[in-house]
Amino acid sequence: MADSEGEPLYRGRSRSGAVMSMQDAQRLAGEAMAKGHRLRILTGDRTTGKLHIGHYVGSLRDRVRLQHSYDTFILLADVQALTTHYDRPEVLRQSVMDVALDYMAIGLDPFTGGVDDETKVKIVIQSMVPAIAELTVYYGLLVPMRLLLDNPTTKSEAEQQGHGSSELPATNLEPRRMHEFDEQTRPARQLLTQEYSELGEIDAPLLFAALREFAGSDNALVLDELDYQARLAEYDAQLELWLSFRDAALKQYLVPAELTQPQQEALEKLRNQLPPQAVAVPRQLLAAALAQLVQDLEWSRDILPVAWMQEPDSELFGARRQEKDEVDRLVAHLPTILRSEMLKKELRQRVIGLKRKAGLSAMNYGFLGYPVSQAADITFVGAHLVPVGEDQVPHIELTRDIVQRFNRQYGATLVEPAALVGGGGVVKGLDGSAKMSKSLDNAIYTSDSYDEIWRRISKAVTDPQRIRRSDPGRPEICNIFAYHQLFNAETEEAIATAHLDVPDVPLTAHLCSTAGIGCVDCKKNLAKKLDALLEPMRKRRAEWAARPDDLREMLLAGTKRGIEEGEKTLAAVKKAMKVDYFG
Predict the structure, then answer these.
(1) DSSP per-residue letters across 195-221
(2) CA 14 to chain centre
């Protein structure tokens, strides 16, 4: 945080001091009001659709708590929405109104015009504030590309955009060959997607490019593991062949008296000496054990010819050694890779890296520069505090970096903000993925009815090892229990006042771990609590939806105040940069 001269008021706990606790936020607000003024909040949301309970935990709840302690501005970030929805601008008009209604639903007290006494929330439409765009241009002059490319949010989005991108390295394969590769690797791709859900769908060209990189690795550890796993696979194949030969020989040579002495010795060895399984052979002895197994098999076959024996799977093992075609060679690597946790993780990293690289190549300039634009969003009103979700902290870090660079270069002009992170952390999606997201359709929205809540929760993932009702559960890994910890009578007043007949969090954990409650009933309890939380929100939303003219006037009044503040900040920036030629 910073005062009006640009000096920091607060150093928080993150790497750069960007994060503030709720306790400190309230303390500093009280100190400022005691001196006759209010510190300022700026926060907002991209207008890409209705808001969900992940937004509520991340920052909406804190906005309500602090709205009367801070002079609050909330941005309807429609320009930011265009960075990913530029080809679907028609969704923005409705989304702006939907998000505005969500703001009213959570209980914000809006500024509707007249004299601004700093006690009401100003809701501002981003695209209607010219100063934000101009500040973005000036800030962009101070930001090295490495800061944008290293931003975790940018990397994550790049990975999502990279799927199926034409920016992947060229495969030089004919469509027929790629189709064959697609068919041959589909089970492996499904397995990788199930094990590493964060990868999303892995299509054939992406896996081909990753395997090509993998095969060309110069990492000694990877090459050693790949060689070891290949030897394991070869040993298993030879052992299977040895066992087939053994069974055939014992059936064929039932009368030992008819055998020569060497044949009887070979048969006795087959009967009594079983080679160990591959996993039982010490790693450093595997090569020698494989050679001995091959030698023993060849010796036995020479002495005891059999009429029939099973040959190894040539598609699995022969292709890797003999086929010169690149597709067959890469496909043959897959069984070896899937046997090893180390190699699977290495392949995962290759896939992530390729998706990120392709996504960055395909990413538009507007999205890559999103953090710079967000710095303009925050600073145009001189915000001291920015309530955000945990995943947005890197953006606040970069905003602070830009402010520091500007103030060092041109003199103390801009306010250095701090982030206020919601206490619930990142809320996982109903599908168990890393983050609840509108784009992944794994969210519960603040406007959902009970029926919609239950429809979504009923399909949510739980403990994958709890198959039967009688199986004890593991609440510590269950996504539904994580929601119980976030939404309960102790954390939410609306749930407490509903006086629901549901177990509290400790009892829920006990019932789950002792099989005292099934997953369906546990989900029903959660649905009741979420319905109690969202019921007053639905009522407030409906009241404002019935007054569209009032909603429009409220947005115009808030945006007007945003324009006024933006003009003040822009004038100060241009003066500091000596480009106020006629000021």
Answers:
(1) H-GGG----HHHHHHHHHHHHT---HH
(2) 21
Angle 431-340-321 from CA coordinates, rounded to 5°: 125
Residues of the chain short of pLDDT 70, as ranges, are 1-17, 158-174, 198, 216-223, 225-226, 255-257, 307-326, 328-329, 423-424, 434
Which residues form the domain of 469? 450-545
Flag whether 581 is in a domain: no
Q: For 40-67, give one letter per residue: b (16+ CB within 10 A) or e.
A: bbbbbbbbbbbbbbbbbbbbbbbbbebb
Q: Are residues 338 and 312 in the same domain?
A: no
Identity of residue 123: I
Tokens 């198959």 — which residue?
467
Both tokens of residue 373? 């634009």
pTM: 0.70
Return the amino acid letter for 207: L
Is 20 exposed, middle or buried, given 0-12, 13-18 or 19+ CB atoms closer than 10 A? buried
94 plus 116 within the same structural domain: yes
Q: Please indicate, yes or no, whether residues 176 and 45 belong to a single structural domain of this protein.
A: no
pLDDT in tens, 9-65: 333 444 456 888 888 999 999 999 999 999 999 999 999 999 999 999 988 999 999
Any domain includes 5: no
**540 and 553 inside one domain:** no
